[in-house]
Amino acid sequence: MKQLRYILIRIMQMIPVMFVVTVIIFWGIRLIPGNPAETILGEKAPASAIRDMEIRMGLDKPVWIQYLIYMKRLFHLDLGISIRLKDSVSHLIAQRMRVTILYTLLCTLFTLLIGTPLGYIAGTTRHRGVDKTISSVSLVILSLPEFWFGILLLLLFGLRLHWVPIGGWGETVADHIRCMILPAFTGAIGSVGILIRNIQSAVKKLLEKDYVNFARSKGASPGIIRNRYILKNVMVSTMTIVAMRITSLLGGSVVIEFVYSLPGMGKMLVDAIDGRDYVLVQGTVLVYALVVMVITLVTDIVYSYIDPRISMN
Amino acid sequence: MLRSRIAKKIRGAGKLDAGTIIGLVLLVLVLLAAFFPRIYTRRDPYEQDLLNALLAPSGEHPFGTDQYGRDVFARVVYGTRVDLLIGFIAMIVPFLTGSLVGLIAGYYGGLADAIVMRVQDVMTAFPFTVLIIAIMSILGPNISNLYIAVWLVGWKDYAKLVRSEVLTEKNLDYVQAARVLGFSNFRICVRHILPNAINGAIVYAVSDIMMCMLVGASMSFLGLGVQPPIPEWGAIITEGRQFILTAWWICAFPGLALAITGTALSLVGESAARFLTNDGRG
Amino acid sequence: MRIRKKILCGILMISAAAMSACGSTGASEAQSSSGAVAPTAGQEKAETGNTSQETTTTEENGAASAGDGSPVVVKIARGGDSVTLDPAFAGDNVDIWVDSLIFEGLVKTSEDGKSLEPCLAEKWDVSDDGKTYTFTLRDGAKFSDGSDVRASDVVYSLNRALKGGSWSSLITCIKDVKAVDDKTVEIDLNNPSGSLMSCLASFICAIYPEKYYSATESDKLASAPLGAGPFLLESWKQDQEMVLKKNPYYWDAGYPLADEIDMTVVPDDNTRLMQLQAGQVDAIEGVSAQMRTQAQNTEGVKVIDFPTTHVEYVSFNYTNEKLNDKRVRQALNYATDREAINKAVFGGLGTLCPSVVWPTAPHFNPNLTSYDYNPDKAKELLAEAGQSNLNLNLIISNGDASSLMEATILKDQWSKVGVNLDIQQMDSSARRDARNNLTFEVLLNYFTSDITDTAEEMELFCIKDNFDCWHLGWNGPDQEKAEKLVKEAGATTDEDVRKKNYYEAQELMADNALVIPLATIPETIAVRDNVSGFEQGILGNYYFNSLTVK
User: pLDDT digit string (tens) for C75-92?
Assistant: First the structure.
């Protein structure tokens, strides 16, 4: 009951935030110089045609009236039709989201698969060389520019070895996954360093905690110590980082989508801003904001389960 | 008690391990390149020589030449200042403002806190890159607008970090004691809470320099960052992208420079973190 | 194909110039003008040619598809996607080129760009005064939904282009379009026009079905086109992939050879090239000079350069006080080493040209004052104009690698004459805004013609309210003079007058140093060795009728 109330309160809190997000994005995008009517009609369109188009799009009205119209539509869950892509915004988002979600999932998976064991080893090893090597390699990799790495991976695994397709998204689910391996790996490179260092320091701190020493002195096997005491506790701090990373990945990664020619959210949004596609930018940012808030809420709830000390208030 | 704390800190600092030393050496080399690029090279990073374009690394041009016949080594060296400046300014301004906001919000609570938290929620709700791109598009692409964009986006992380620390600190005995002694709020905040609450933010700030440099580089990728022909590492790499298969050196060396700077900052940052969090044992 | 080409080229081609000349010299005693006789006579032969060739290709085709049983699919990777496929509003070349696959007009430009071929109209007739054109539609010309191309469709399409289309300024000479009967269309002009035929051959005057276009929302028309071209749009996921299928009702039986064309969007140059190298796609577009060597060195890949009308140029804002002085603009011309730019940016593939008019244009003036690289003269002129320490801002589009290179080199070259250039990258919308409002100082630009005649370019650059003239901010007595010359040339079919006027107008533009023409550059593509028939005309239009993969 208490939990339900907490969730309800949190959801209530989202409403004003969402409202402010719509206001900012609505006015913000209109501050950028440029005109969406010209995007549709092309730059050679006669001025009269551009004016007609502006009237048809309702851009001739005062901004606050446009905003009211937009809000009215929003209440009917209508995100509108993209100006540039001429498709419904919800459909476009649904289409592009698939790519970005798969990317986010695989990327997170790779990050965890690479980062957790390495971080754990670096944290528990008594061998300083191993420890230092892992942490410095993760640092170097972290600072490599994504597209540089991306092109090198394509060159090796795509062109030389023919293991994966060179860019694209494919038709079937199997295709999608095959196409996504390199991009996800490239993306994971950027976040794995942070994860390794985080786990490493968390593990080190835990090993010095009394209850771990106590368990050890009582003869608990290293396996039990690892599984029951350390990993569970490390998960809490890892989750914060992973959740943060997931939210930023869901925004799309322009550079990776560009290099691997993936139809994801990032490039769509950048192109939408570029073409002053007001409707698409508004819709996408709004959906993104909602997703971020839900993820934050879910992480907070999960937290309280893993670590009962964090109360819900 | 105070004395022993300081002593412990000094002892901790005295125990420089290999990582810290390597980090410091690299950092000094990087800083030298930033302040005195002429130590490294006599060449002009802007001077074009179209007849000698795309030369592979050699004695004369240790990092080769780019598509305009400019010396890549000189461009990488002179780029150090540009990149460090981006990293530093884009870090320090959000750091100062964010920490201040976090301190006030955490200490006073109530309405101030509620407002800061909601603003933070709103900021978090926007995708990071999109927010920066949108701000840059509104303001127009150049380096000072890049700082403004990163500042508008970046302050909230510091505010969050400092606020949560302040929340724990302000209920501790020594703060209560200071209150009982009748110290002003300002004094309690600045003299007592801040030094303890800021550590996390400082540690974050050191790694944030690198993140800011990478943001600067990816803005160059989108044409929104430093405008050519200023030698910014990200811009050099972006421009060299079309030659990546034929003239690898244009992209590789600035990439390496980014990696070296990143490593130096992180190693030093790690030591700083140990020093500040005072566990002294790592 | 070879047979057809020979017959068509050899006998039937009526060049635009010849056409218009015929119209005007039609004062001969012959009842109908000689211009009308030629196509009729030619057409008969062409028809014979077509039938004979039809059988051969069908056989070939049948054999090919029976051979391996699978349809011929050609995969092409492009750098960017089209925005609209409504020819009336086509903006960029990415739109226009695809339009040339889906739509056809009454006539079409030959592959070499020098002459016109019959298309949906099989013959035409020009009245003696050059003000009435009568077209007879081809029997068997059908839209890709199977409906006949009727005269009423032509009337509708041309009126739609004329009233509210983006390109209406090019065909303002049209007074009225009438359907005489189901197969005959009459176009009445306000004045004789030397460029009408080449406009009718371009996407501007593409023919589409009235029934569908009048009943469909214009938003939908942008993504659901219907024409009579060799291909039809099967599906289009914007910014990803466009699938074109063979039009089963195409009038030129046996063509196109390919059953399907997949056009994918691969923005990154390196990725695109790697896809071709790996055989993932059959052809790629937008091969930069930098990628070109790389592509050439790949086994199984061949590089093709098509000549174009594409001229890269630097535009000055005439209304800017710093640039208002002719001497400053001339100085900047002298300060530019165009050969060096051509070598560094275009790998030496470009051709230097003295004006924005491409050198193979019918009325290209070869005797213009050209500003050869001369930094001393540049300094002199700047000093004379009192602008020895000039600061200028140069706008380029972001993400455009060759503009960036040009800009970087210009900055270096101009710095040698004491001009400081600040480069500013802008996204397309912001750049357009700066151009429309004339708030820029200098910007990098390019021109590609949409018709084979010089008229479009001359009118766009010299008539004040037109697109390019407006964006240069050109005004004053010279501009007025040029405008008068160009308008006069536009209202006649007398080749001598047209030539004289266009030459003079070009001279005025060159003398005023309105722009710095950098070079005219080819369009470079790369294909796998087993691809044949990838042809692009001088206007960039695709000629994919015989495109196929073995």
Answer: 999 999 998 899 998 878
